């Protein structure tokens, strides 16, 4: 018959979410500009834009979940969704390449400055060094090293959960803490997700504590600006990844995933591994190499 579907692709019905999402992003951008320029009502426009973006994300992704349950995500559609996730992660890699580029540019071609009691002064006849002379740095082998172990451990727990999902490892009821959380005896999927979410929250808490007790403020020098932008954006990605995992945890409780169809879970695992790898580079380049030879705070 003319117009009959004879392919494996899913043709989406008309949707208003792309147009509405674009309008929400525009509202968020306008609110951000108004807020930064101290315009009247700027903060409310910013918050309204943020709320609109989050609402559009929820509605659009809810449609994607419904399409999956309706059987529209055929193997070829899932393959191309994986391609899309790979390209998204590749764009995120280039985003962090920009911050690493800035860090190496500042460190390999430093400006001759001195930091005295929080005051940065350019000294024309001084020898340029990195970190700036007089700046105390964070000890890489205390909280940053602890956070490194936490993220490495979280990478193993999410892999454990993924392995359990592929092999359909679900079990009966169990008493104790796991039983209170509704986790079965052999349910490695829920256990792995719970542990990964907990480790992500612990990482963010430790990083917030580190920022509160850092010996240098944001914007004091090229060192502090590059440090906070690189590690801060990574921390934001950890928060996003943790929310991503919480959504998958809720969906796992609802039985949305099967060994053959679990792209949402798989993409969250990929994103979390990406966050892990970026942190390893940040730890080595910024905390260890970037602070080498400088006085350590505390």
Write the topology of this structure.
Blueprint: H1 17-36, H2 42-69, H3 75-108, E1 113-116, E2 119-122, H4 143-166, H5 176-180, H6 188-212, H7 222-253, H8 263-289
Antiparallel strand pairs: 1-2
Helix pairs in contact: 1-2, 3-7, 3-8, 4-6, 4-8, 6-7, 7-8
Structure overview:
It is a single chain. With 298 residues, the chain is an all-alpha fold. The chain folds into two domains: 14-72, Helix Hairpins (Orthogonal Bundle); 73-289, Four Helix Bundle (Hemerythrin (Met), subunit A). It is built from eight helices and two strands, in the order αααββααααα. The protein has helices at 17-36, 42-69, 75-108, 143-166, 176-180, 188-212, 222-253, 263-289; strands at 113-116, 119-122. Strands 1-2 form a two-stranded antiparallel sheet. Helix 1 (17-36) packs antiparallel against helix 2 and helix 7 (222-253) runs antiparallel to helix 8. The protein starts with 16 loop residues before the first helix and ends in a 9-residue tail after the last helix.
């Amino acid at each position: 018959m003319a117009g009959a579907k004879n392919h494996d692709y899913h043709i989406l019905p008309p949707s208003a979410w792309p147009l509405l999402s674009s309008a929400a992003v525009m509202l968020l951008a306008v609110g951000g500009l108004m807020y930064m320029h101290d315009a009247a009502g700027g903060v409310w426009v910013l918050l309204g834009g943020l709320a609109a973006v989050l609402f559009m994300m929820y509605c659009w992704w809810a449609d994607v979940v419904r399409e999956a349950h309706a059987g529209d995500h055929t193997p070829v559609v899932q393959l191309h969704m994986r391609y899309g996730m790979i390209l998204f992660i590749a764009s995120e890699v280039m985003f962090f390449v920009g911050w690493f580029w800035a860090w190496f540019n500042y460190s390999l071609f430093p400006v001759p400055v001195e930091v005295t009691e929080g005051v940065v002064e350019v000294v024309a006849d001084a020898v340029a060094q990195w970190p700036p002379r007089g700046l105390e740095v964070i000890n890489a082998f205390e909280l940053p090293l602890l956070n490194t172990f936490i993220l490495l451990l979280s990478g193993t727990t999410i892999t454990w959960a993924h392995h359990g999902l592929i092999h359909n490892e679900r079990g009966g009821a169990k008493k104790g803490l796991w039983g209170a959380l509704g986790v079965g005896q052999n349910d490695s999927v829920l256990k792995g997700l719970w542990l990964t979410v907990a480790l992500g929250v612990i990482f963010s808490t430790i990083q917030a504590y580190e920022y509160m007790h850092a010996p240098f403020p944001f914007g004091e020098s090229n060192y502090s600006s590059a440090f906070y932008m690189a590690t801060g954006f990574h921390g934001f990605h950890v928060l996003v990844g943790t929310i991503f995992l919480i959504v998958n945890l809720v969906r796992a409780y609802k039985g949305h995933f099967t060994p053959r169809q679990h792209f949402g879970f798989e993409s969250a695992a990929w994103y979390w591994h990406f966050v892990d790898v970026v942190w390893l580079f940040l730890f080595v380049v910024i905390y260890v190499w970037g602070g080498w030879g400088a006085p350590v705070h505390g």
